[in-house]
Amino acid sequence: YHAFFAHPEPGQILITIPPYTFDAGLPEGYAPRTLDTWQPFLDAEAMAERAVACERHFQRATEGVDCDYIPNVNPSYGIGLCSAFLSNAAVIPGKETTWIHPVLHALGEMDKLSLDPLNPWIDFMRRYMNRAKEVSQGDVCVCMLASMAPSDLANAVRGNELFYDLYDDPEGVHRLLSLCVDAVAGLYGLLKSSTAAPDGGFVAGGLWMPGDGLFLSEDGADLCSPDNYAALFQPHTQALLDRIGGAYIHHHAYGWRVHGEIAKLSDRLRFLEFSWDPNKPRPVDHLQDVLAMSQDKPIQIRCTLPDLKRHIDEMKEGRFAVMVNVETVEEAKEAVRIVRKASKV
Question: What is the pLDDT of residue 345?
Answer without folding.
Answer: 79
